[in-house]
Amino acid sequence: MSSPEERWWSVRAGEYVLGTLRGEDLALFERILSHDTEMCAEVARWERRLGPLYESARESPPGDRVWRRVLERIRGSDGAPSETELEARDVVIGTVATPGSEGTTDSPRDGRPSRLWPVVAGLATAASLVLGLLVGLLLYQRAESPGRAPLQVDGLAVVLSDEDGEPYFLVETDYGNLRVRVTALTPPSLEENRNFQLWQALPDRSAVRPVALLPEASGGSQVFDVGSLIEGSDLFGVSIEPEGAPTDAGPTGPVVAHGDFLLRADPD
Amino acid sequence: MRRERLVVLLERCAEGHESALEELYGLCAGQLNGVLVRILKIEAIAEEALQESFVKIWENAGSYSSEAGAPMTWMSSIARHQALDVLRRRGSREGHESTGLVSLIEATPDTDKPLHEMSEDAQLLLRCLERLPDAAHDCIVKAYCEGYSHEELSEEKGAPLGTVKSWIRRGLNSLRKCVDELS
User: Are residues B165 and A52, on separate chains, in Cβ contact within 8 Å?
Assistant: First the structure.
């Protein structure tokens, strides 16, 4: 388990076992589980890791009626499901995931287009993302703004992570409609009057250029035209910027996430 | 010895032997009900969930394998998911506690069980949990053992929702590394 995507999905499986996935996140994760054997195996690993906690529960002998009712159920003499069973069959409702803590990678301003971040060498390539991203596409196919067709993800996507592999943003492409969507996964908390700014490296990686401001709440997404991006450039980063800060000279705040993203030169 | 016996009983359940389920129930119902009571807080609802859990154990005994962990781990997982389904459907713990139709029980989990009385797997897990920051440790244990949601943890901790989620996610990541390294 080495790539940020694998780690992210492992933690997702852990959250499922923990019981903290709720609502849409839970429903989608269960849908994934129904056909993804590797994810099932990861859930089983988490069940084994956390399972021994049952031993800390104080024993509580149930009443005699419980066993009688179990017998009735398995013998089929009482086919009617109990209240609990009916409840369990209902659609679950709940919450959507939200972000985490602050990253620390600094990128000082030097009055000219900034040099690329030194972490570039360690970045994973987009080609390594297959499983996590396919599932990611399912999980983050959220509704777009009213009046726009839903994003049809048809290109490569990438998770922008911090240096510990904490996944902050998911970038997906819709070449058919020439759009790109960035979805906040677990970005760090922002102080007041601060924004997440997405940057793209120039093809020769000599400097970066601003692309868009990103949503700060987990689950939020920002859609923009493919034309906003430079063809042939594969490195993206996210910095925290003061509201209204000029972007012509590169990041002024810490770069909190980065990732490779292979933009197709020819969408067709 | 007990573990081997439980494996045999599950195998016999898979073959349709009611007597095996009865023995399994006798050996495990108290512990599993304890797991359920700790999450659901109300004895009557916990017993309802226990009933459903044993029906599922009976129906799915054939799918148990050692890869799923110890038999009790597997069965407690079935019980926990049953309890979580009930909690999610009811929306919140407070919602059904306020009905007043059933007796409330002591909500505090038993954390005083001596370490030496626990299995090696449990001791390892507890050692790894102790290495986590207090906030992450507390949130993970409360979520797992008592079915706390992010919102409930946020309220209890007086911390923003995003912070709680981050504690849990980072904690799970560290926990995975620790347990996998030590086991």
Answer: no
Indicate the domain borders of chain A.
Answer: 4-89, 118-260
Burial class (CB in 10 A: 0-12, 13-18, 19+), A24: middle
Residue A115 has pLDDT above 80, yes or no: no
Comparing A58 with A249, the larger pLDDT belongs to A58
Residues of A in Cβ contact (< 8 Å) with B55: 70, 73-74
On whether any CB of chain A is under 8 Å from the CB of B104, the answer is no
Q: How far is A238 from chain B (nearest CA, A)?
A: 18
Query: How close, in Å, is residue B129 to chain A by CA atoms?
Result: 10
B2-97 CATH fold: Rna Polymerase Sigma Factor; Chain: A (1.10.1740)
Tell if the CB–CB gap between A101 and B88 is shorter than 8 Å: no
- Domain boundaries defined on chain B: 2-97, 115-182
How close B164 comes to chain A (CA, Å)? 8
Contacts across the A-B interface (CB distance below 8 Å): 219
In this model, does residue A196 exceed pLDDT 60?
yes
Residue of B31, B86, B163 lying closest to A87 (CB–CB): B86
CB under 8 Å to B49, separation ≥6 — which residues?
Answer: A84, B36, B40, B79, B82, B83, B86
Angle between helices B161-182 and B120-131 (to 10 degrees): 130
**What tokens were used for A96?**
């959507």
Contacts of B109 in chain A (CB under 8 A): 56-58
pLDDT at B168: 95
pLDDT confidence of residue B110: 47
Task: Specify the fold of B115-182.
Answer: Arc Repressor Mutant, subunit A (1.10.10)
State chain B's maximal CA–CA distance in angstroms.
51
Q: Which of A152-156, B166-170, B174-178 has the lowest mean pLDDT?
A: A152-156
Cβ neighbour number for residue B154 with a 10 Å cutoff: 20
H-only helix segments in A151-241: none
pLDDT in tens, B4-46: 899 999 999 999 999 999 999 999 999 999 999 999 888 888 9
Radius of gyration of chain B (CA): 17
Q: Identify the band that residue A175 occupies on the pLDDT scale cut at 50, 70 and 90.
A: low
Are B67 and A51 an interchain contact pair (Cβ–Cβ within 8 Å)? no
